[in-house]
Amino acid sequence: MKYKIPESVLVVIHTPKCEVLLIRRADAGTWQSVTGSKDHSAENWSETAMREVREETGIDASHPQCHLQDWQLENVYDIYPAWRWRYHPDVSRNTERLFGLMVPAKMPITLSPTEHTEWQWLDWHEAADQCFSPSNAEAILMLPRFLRSCLP
Q1: Which residues does 37 contact at the CB level (< 8 Å), separation at least 6?
Q2: What is the mean pLDDT of residues 41-53?
Q3: pTM of the full predicted structure?
């Protein structure tokens, strides 16, 4: 069995109007932003973020109308027991790098049906309230630090 690398990204996909994309996990039924682990140790954070966005939403983060921003922030957290089997037995913590991806407007999403079942665009406050993961909700609430148009 190939173990997952305990280094992942969380990508908050948003519009200039501070509308945030959430996707519903197929396995747990919870709402979240795009997340995913590095495929190999040489894959850099930006490559991981762009790959995961494409796999989970169909969005090409390298498109000229999109802007991927590395927020230069990381969360380190205990891996939930339900998912620990995916990692080497000696691994119990994951490092998650935060990104924002601004898209020009709300758009239809092409989900990976094995990973996600639904998608929705919500106001950033509402999106944070819908997230299962506290670190995901916190990342969405940081959006005004990186996008002034979210401020009242």
Answers
A1: 4, 5, 6, 7, 8, 48, 94
A2: 97
A3: 0.95
